[in-house]
Every structure is written in structure tokens, then in C-alpha cells.
What does this fold into?
Amino acid sequence: MLNYVWLGLIFLGLAAALSSDVLDKTTNRYQKGNEIQVSVLFNEPPDLKTEKTYDVIVKVDKAKFLKFYNEIVEKDVEFKSKVTLKKNDITSPIYFVLDKDAPKIWQKMAKVNGKEEDLTGELKIIKINEDLTAEAGLLLEEISFVKLKEVTNSALEYAEIAVKIALGLIGIMALWLGVMKIAEEAGLIQIIARALKPITKFLFPDVPSDHPAMGSMIMNISANFLGLGNAATPFGLKAMEELDKLNPEKGTATNAMCTFLAINTAGMTLIPATAIAVRAAAGSSEPAVIIGTALVGSTCATITGITAAKIMEKFPLKFGEFSAWLKSNVKFFFWVFGIVSLLAILAFTGILTLVKGALSFINVETLKTFIQIISTVAIPFLIMIFVGYGALKKVKVYETFVEGAKEGFNVAVRIIPYLVAMLMAIGIFRSGGAMEWLIFVLRPITDFIGMPAEALPMALMRPLSGSGSLGIMAEIISVHGPDSFIGILVSTFFGSTETTFYVLAVYFGSVSVKKTRHALPAGLLADIAGVLGAVFIVRLLFL
It folds into this structure.
């Protein structure tokens, strides 16, 4: 499945980039060979009888800019530069650096030649006035294949990011796998697994309750729920390594792996600290109001992901086995139906509105302080408990920690090719413009369910990229406000879903699984359910 997704991301990104460049070429989007009329202010009277270099300020009237590029700018465009006028020569090469307020089309043109933020061209003096000003024509450098060049730069940039992510995991992996090894040797993980046996037996019937994989999965899910991402990833990778030891068919995902990743991609978190921090930084009066909405959205995602994984793991069924399969899973469907019905009843009877009211009485600063305390204390507390319990059980904690830490280095290095492949494809998809295609296709569906078009990029980007979705969320919040309907909605999206493609690439890559079976469909269904749940609950409470 990932093979087709990977090819699809690359193909759509390249197709979108190529079609965009052809259209730009046909319409002469960047005005190749055409001069835009500008006014030039010299620092001293220009003299065409001698060769001299002048400091100048070049100004483009906003009306002329609109007519020339068909792009609206809020004010006249200005930049500083130097021009050299030679004897009896009215032309001069010109070079200038763009600032953050420069027109978007110029910023795009500048990026074509790499990460530079400058443009070059030629200035032709038309008329010199008596007040140190002159009328001139500005001919900028030739620009072509903008999107394809952006795709090239993005592919290289994302490949570099993938390696940085993997190398950045080495220290974290070494730390947590070392601590995990101590807890495992001391028997603490087995104690936790036995306490949660009724739940884990239902979710992972093929994994023995006393197997090391069970403890790692429990710790991963718990860390994710508490928002401890730095601890969750090492636990998850360790869980995949242990699950692979039970795998009779190496390279192919097992049912337990698919269910485990469905839970991970659902992203159920008690406190979406990142989204709350972004909202607080944007000046929200109630930054933590999304705790309830994100919990509802992620609950919908988790239920859907687990249900999808449990259903799809049974297929394909042989002829005549469907009725037996249905009977054997009656209890499972009963519980799923009961939970979904309960959520619907709570929503429609207005009980969730009371939750909103209850949250409004909570002091925001107190809640922020509580979240900060939990985030700060949780990791040292876990380390203290694990290492302390190991010491009480006479485990050689130092030697055991080092033994577990060695595994972290190997795992982090092993996932580099998988991360590079997936992030490179995502980079091509984003920079090529395929996201705009997808938004256009899905617009009728989002309009039907009541999702604002402005929120759709966030919903689409979240499964692809954590940093990308964070940037989109921050941008939307800055435009519409953190406490607006759209601001609350995109914040809930961030707390209700996970970066599905990243999770699958990292986790399956750590154990060299190439046949992912139903893990991706289950994860994407969880993402869709999380988005729909978020739209439903936010519309119910805030619209």
C-alpha cells in the first residue's frame, strides 16, 4: 500500500508542478522580456557624462504593479539598491534584496535560484527630472519552471530534514530504551501489563500478556495520551521491534502491528499542549478550551482506527466464513456501537455544552501552570520510578541502561532511508501544488459537512507533516484569531489526529516491514473520523 501512496504523492506533485509551469509559460506569468515602469530617487543629481555609481531608492506604484503582475499589494513597492551609469549609457544592472513585506510573486521568483532572497535585472532610465528623481523601466531576470525548481529544492530540503530527525532521535532513543531495559529486567513492565490485561487481550489477542512487546505498547500509548512525544516514539519503536520477534512472516505487518499503529495514528491525547501553546501565544482568552473538543475528536479517531483495523484484519474471508466471523465479533461491534451512541446522545442532549461552561470557570493561568508542571515533572518522574524500582530489585542499573541504550542508536540509524523516502515524497507533493488540486476536489464535500474552506488545508496537511500542519494552524489563527470558530476548529484538528505517514514510515521502517497490509487505510480512516468528530463538536459548541 505504501508503494502506491509513495508513487501517488510523487506523481501528483510533479504533475501539478509541470502543469503550473506550462500555464505560467503560456500566460507569461512572470512577464519575461517586459519592463515595469518605476520611479528612481538618486542620492545626488545623476550625470550621464561620467561613469558613476549612485545609491538609489526604486519605487513601483501599487496600481502599476497590479496591472503588470495582476497581483494586489497593499502599498507602493520600494527597495534600495545601487546603479552605475556610464557615459552616454542609460542602462544599468541592478541587484536588490527582498524584505519580508516584498510582494509574494517577487519572493517566489527569488526562491527559484535556491534559498536566496534577492533579484537581479536591468534598469533603463527614460527621463531624468530636476528633483533627483527619474522615470525608468525595470526588466527583471528571466524566470522559468518555478514550480519544478521548487520541487527540486523541496526534495533536497526534506531529505536533509529526514536525516536530522533520525539523528536527533539517537539521544532520545538511547535514553528511553536504556530506562525501559531497566524496567523490563526489574519486572515492572510485566506488572503494568498484567494490570491492563483485559484491555490488551482484546486489542492484541495474538501477543502474550507477559511478552515485552505488551509493556512497550502500553508505555507508548500512555506517553502519547499524556502528550509526552519524546518518550512515546522510543517506546513505540521498541514495541515494533518486539512485535517483529513474534512475526512469522518477516517484512509483512502483523495484525497486532496494524492495530497498534491505528491507535498511534489516531493521536488520542489528554492535553494537546502544542496547540494550547500556539493559541496562548496568539493571545487567546481561553487557550485550553480545546481540551474537551480535541478529546472528543481523538476519541472518534481512536474508535474508528481500532474498529477498521479489527474488521480489515479478517479479510479476505473464504467463502462461507462471513457469518462465523460476524458471530465471533458480536461483542466487539456491540461495544463500538454503545460508545458511539453514548457520544451522540451526550452531544445532542447538550451535556457537552455544560462541559464548555465548566471549562469557562477554570482559571486559564492556573490550567497553563498545571499543564507546564505535568509536562516538566512527568519524564523525570518516570525515570526515577523505573530506575529506582530497578535498584530495589537488585538490577545492575548502569550496565543494563547501557545495554538498552545501544539498541537506540541502531534503530535511529536504521529508519533513515524510510524517513528520507517518505518525507521527500511529501515535500514534492506540497511544493508541486498538488495540495491545491486536492482542496479543489474536496471543496464540495467540506461545504456539505459544514467545514470552512479555510480549514481544509489544515485537515489535509495533518496526516502528512507535523511541522507543516503546525505552520498552517499558526497562520490560520493569526488571520482569523485564536478564539474564532475557525481558530478553535484547526486547533482541534491538531489535537485530534496524528502525522499518519510519518508514523508509518518510522515505525515500519524500524523493523523493515514493506507490506503494511491494512495499517494505512485504518490510519487514514482514523484521521477522517477525527476531522469529522472535530467539525461536529466544534460546530455544536462554538457556532
